[in-house]
Design goal:
Blueprint lengths: L12 H17 L10 E2 L6 E9 L6 H9 L5 E5 L6 E3 L1 H10 L3 E8 L2 H7 L3 E6 L11 E2 L3 E3 L2 E3 L4 E5 L2 E5 L4 H23 L4 H4 L5 H4 L1
Parallel strand pairs: 2-3, 3-5, 4-5, 5-6
Antiparallel strand pairs: 1-6, 2-7, 2-10, 8-9, 10-11
Helix pairs in contact: 1-5
Length: 215
């Protein structure tokens, strides 16, 4: 499946975003785009840089995810709001289905399970918690439509960047600006770290030297 919203980014946006990471991009963005920090990778080293496909699940009900796997464009990450209800919405079976469908990751404010299997398959999942509790399949409140996840707006095609530091969601219209600003910030920090290695002080480099006498 294709989606016009998913062609709004430069072809190399994923590589650029991964190289910069969520922290640098968040600082460079100036936007309220950080998902609740309690939404964490379920295995160390997981990372995502891909367009979002939003879903809303009723608490303890994962039907929307099953439908979303059939509708989401290949190359997308499912961004699932559950109202912060932690249950085992996602596990190894859905991971296998996602791999076949070309889905590249999951961000969910609920829970996941089968963590050892997810880690072995290297499928990136970011969740609020881990839970053995199963889910029903009875309702699908929203599929592929703009929504909020932990108070952060997400629309189809928005850029999701997730790694060990956290999860951010950048609007399509801001993605190129933020990537460019992030690259400038990374270059500035690299120059600063080089000067630090040569013996410079963070107080001097950050214009904080007055605190030497006032603290």
């Amino acid at each position: 499946m294709s989606d016009p919203a998913f062609s709004a980014f430069p072809a190399n946006f994923a590589a650029r975003a991964r190289a910069l990471g969520s922290s640098t991009l968040y600082e460079a963005s100036g936007l309220p785009c950080s998902v609740d920090p309690l939404v964490r990778p379920v295995w160390p080293g997981a990372s995502i840089a891909a367009p979002a496909y939003p879903l809303t699940c009723s608490p303890g009900d994962n039907l929307a995810i099953h439908i979303g796997l059939e509708r989401a464009p290949r190359g997308s990450v499912l961004v699932v709001s559950t109202g912060d209800f932690v249950a085992g919405y996602w596990g190894e079976v859905l991971t296998v289905a996602a791999e076949v469908a070309g889905i590249v990751g999951l961000v969910i404010d609920g829970g996941a399970r089968d963590i050892a299997a997810l880690a072995a398959r290297r499928f990136p999942v970011f969740a609020r918690g881990i839970s053995v509790r199963g889910t029903i399949k009875a309702s699908a409140p929203s599929i592929g439509k703009p929504q909020l996840i932990t108070g952060v707006a997400v629309a189809p095609g928005d850029l999701v960047v997730a790694d060990d530091d956290g999860v951010i969601i950048l609007p399509t219209t801001e993605a190129e600006r933020v990537l460019t600003a992030g690259e400038a910030r990374a270059a500035k920090e690299a120059a600063m770290m080089e000067r630090l290695a040569q013996g410079a002080s963070t107080l001097d480099l950050m214009g904080l030297s007055d605190w030497r006498t006032s603290a």
